[in-house]
């Protein structure tokens, strides 16, 4: 299996299986691309020639578009009948917008990745490979980060951006005062008992809708949420420390779509879980001086959310 990786600053890393190397591609506006070999020398040692993604590879944190020491890609190197991992880095020297189409129309897919697998970048673009033209295509779905957010009784109905929390979103919308000022951790406590819904509308092109496999991925959801796409229930999340991926059937997708996340109160969820367990599990509650909430041990959520 071969993999394609879209990185933040406008480069695509691909495995070039036929030439036993890994390429860094910088697409440009005329639908062609320049390629730089960043691993492999054409040797048969690199016959496996895949990209492996260690923890943190998706975030480039260096300044001015350069790699940080933790940003490394991995490929397997076959030698002496054993497989070991070779680690390499490639400096990213400029920030460049990706073009609409990259790749060469030829008899073999030299831009290797899982055909019809969709990747994305942080600018709201998605990328997929088509076997018919051996190219990687870009579709800009929505460059905005605009979500419709409301609580259970509709007293709050605003637009906001993610990532964020209810407190940061409401504060940015001038709906509440500074959450960390004075005793606002207590005064705004009612927010954590409420139910919240996040909705995102987006459109899909015919190129995307013609594909055969669809997956939606969330890097982090905090914490208990039911996820629905166009009335199709995708699944529930209950752990903020892991990512979630859900397969989407074709009949759930339309040209215009609505993604909906319905969040339960983490405090009430933890209380319900403690009562269902029917046994005492310390710690029971934080000290009174912390003005916190109980039963943090019954939910996979950062403990500081319940008190500090």
Automatic annotation (TrEMBL):
Superkingdom to which the source organism belongs: Eukaryota
Listed GO CC annotations: lysosome
Keywords: Glycoprotein, Glycosidase, Hydrolase, Lysosome, Signal
GO biological process terms held by the UniProt record: glycoprotein catabolic process
Record has tRNA processing as a keyword: no
Primary location class: other
UniProt-listed InterPro entries: Beta-mannosidase-like_N2 (IPR054593), Beta-mannosidase_GH2 (IPR050887), Galactose-bd-like_sf (IPR008979)
EC number: 3.2.1.25
Main EC class the enzyme belongs to: hydrolase
Origin organism lineage: Eukaryota, Metazoa, Spiralia, Gnathifera, Rotifera
Name of this protein: beta-mannosidase
Family statement drawn from the similarity comment of this UniProt entry: Belongs to the glycosyl hydrolase 2 family.
Catalytic activities: Hydrolysis of terminal, non-reducing beta-D-mannose residues in beta-D-mannosides
Cellular localization per UniProt: Lysosome
Limits of the Beta-mannosidase-like galactose-binding domain: 147-308
Species whose genome carries this gene: Adineta ricciae
